[in-house]
Amino acid sequence: MKNNVFIMRVLFLILLLLIVPLLHSQQIKNFRLEGVLFDTSKRAVDYATVTILSEVDSLYVKGNVSNEKGQFRIENIPSGRYILSVTHLLYKRKYVNIEVQENTILDSILMEENVVGLDAVTVTANVIQQKIDRYVVFLQGNPITKGNNTKEVLTLLPGVTNEENSLKINGRDVSEIYVDGRKLRDRNELDAIQAENIDKVEIVHMSGSEESASSMGGIIDIKLKKMSNGGYYGSVSSDFSVHFKGGHYSDNINASLNYRNKNLSIYNYTYFGHLKNISQYNIYSHYKEINKYIDMQTDGKGWTNSFSDRLSLTYDITNRHSIGGNFRLGITNGEPINRSESTVKNNVGERIDRSESIIEEKLRTRQYQAALNYDWILDDKGSKIKFIIDYLRYNNKRIRGNSYLYNLDKDNGYEENTSDRLDDRTDMLEIDTRLEQRISDKSQLDIGLNYSLNNSKQFLDYKKWENNIWVSDLDLSDNYKLKGQNYAGFASFSSMITKKITYKVGIRIQENKIEYNSVKISKQNSKNYWGIYPTLNLMYNIDEQKGNSISLFYQKAMDPIPYSAITPVVIYNNEYLYTKGNLDIKPVNYHLIMLGGGINGQWNINYLFGFSEDVLFFKTFQHEKDPLVTYTMPVNDGKNYMQALSLDRTFKIAKWWSLKAIGRIQWLKYEGVDINSSSWKPYLAINNNMDFDNGWGGNLSYYLEPTYKTQDRIYKTVHGINGKIYKYLLDNKLLLNLNFTLYRHNRRRITNTLDIWSKRHYTTNETGFMIKVIYNFNGGRKVTTKQSKSIQDYYEYKDN
After folding, report:
1. Are 172 and 559 in contact (CB under 8 A)?
2. Counting beta carbons within 10 angstroms of the beta carbon of residue 100, is it exposed (0 to 12), middle (13 to 18) or buried (19 or more)?
3. What's the pLDDT score for residue 367?
């Protein structure tokens, strides 16, 4: 009953937001202008900006954008004489004198390509276009695509970095990545898509009300090159990695294919990888109350094999109706082994005991996904209705054997053997429907409803070896079930105040319901969280041609529901350390304000302020029975304040050499019950990208993250140098890459609580190289393709 009332309130709010602008649009009745754009090769010119200028003073009157067929339509034009201006980054600007006295259909307008030949490379002068909540980078013919895959070229864009193998926008994790409208489930797919197959990339600074309230970071939306009937393109690649001290580290094969046959578009991605588990670190801990020390060395080995295949199909029923399907299979098998040796010392540094542990695992993970989506283009303005239903089955089986040897320096040494087994089956379902209504050439209204389900069943079996038999540990074993449901409705409206000032306001109402029970819990427990999440975007486009603009963003957001941490699962790291879940944690709300701007299309400047309460983080505790054993557990505690200033600039050093420099300084303040901390967190990265005329090229990057502190942890300096050399062969179809890591100073993490001081030093030697061979293929004329959308990410909350 409560859910029905909630949904009715959402529908009523959306209806109110829909009626007002629609009534306003009905009052405007003037004339309509239509036309179509082609280039000299008779190809449709899509996404061109078509504007009507006053014949007297050339001031802006109306405008729109051409669709995929090169068609454009501008409505509500008063009668009179005008200048029609057509601009596109790949074509010369076109001016046409027109007179509007009635509804008018123009003759086809021919666009002339605006390119400068540089061997096989096409260069455009200005490839970045600022919009109200994002910027668009056109990559067709852009030299930065040469020799790079999608993940690599993203790090060359303003504000985007790859930090510890995590993509970030202005220092914040990317929430979602879309490729031709489909949400990526496996981001390894970015390595399989070559940057030369990208048409454009849209970087959304801060997610809006259309995304889940838990999408706090930005969005990356990638549009691939398009194909006509019979066209296809793709790539096959293989790589082999070596660490200088660890030897053979990994080898991978992946392939991607885009193909179009009449009304059917096909996309397929396949990946197989073999990865060694190389994890080495030392932990030195001081237990303050008992005044003892433990010095531990840990060495991780073993292997993991992964296979993934995703097939996406889209069929155009008519030019306005299309239906798509997305199907994915993921398989992971692994057998990692972690060995550790620990020495216990007294307060004067004398060794008083020694212990060892061996933890062997067998991992089996299976993912099955099926998704359907339907798109309906309502009118020539581009108004759309979208419907998506997405299902994912996630099966995870883990068997772990733990052997602990204690008191090795004493006569009473003994051994403990335990085992644990986790069977986890999770079913995820998402249903999303939305309307994108183009009210006029200046205004758009988006409304939608969303439902998602996360249903998890976990069988936990913990055992001890006692008296030559395995005995169940009833304190840990359990049969646990969790059900999470999300109901949401949203609406957003965007328009122009003047020619240079645009805005977008949105609101999302979202309710999250969590239910869980187990053998140990006598009754079913449920928690409800709901909230109103507004968003605001405001942009002043000072000079579009020079790339000067100022933007203001506000967002109220929520941490993703940490389903993976709302669990009784206990994970043993070694004989003195383990991690466990927490059934009592709750999601966290954030308030974020960002002020950003661009200068001359080269400088990217952003200031960010954030505030949150009941911060969720992994806190360190001392075991109640054994003071030498510690564990971490997620808890809600305290307030968090954050301010950040980021600045990046791209320099053209020479014809063949460009440099991107990015600097960021964050101020982090935490106020907790027993912990108070504040710290500056700097970050610096320099990326040199080189492209020579003879098929050679490469890049060289340096990054530095000095020491910073947050909650009860201090993260010491980490920095490194890596790069790549590439060479094109066989008419640019074969690409040879040599990736290398010349130097890396690994992370050291210090934890300081009232009871424990501990330093963890990651000693894995990651210097090495990777040889990669890529073969690019294509056929037919690239004009148009579509792909289906994919499911939401399964958010895993774990201690890092």
Report:
1. no
2. buried
3. 94
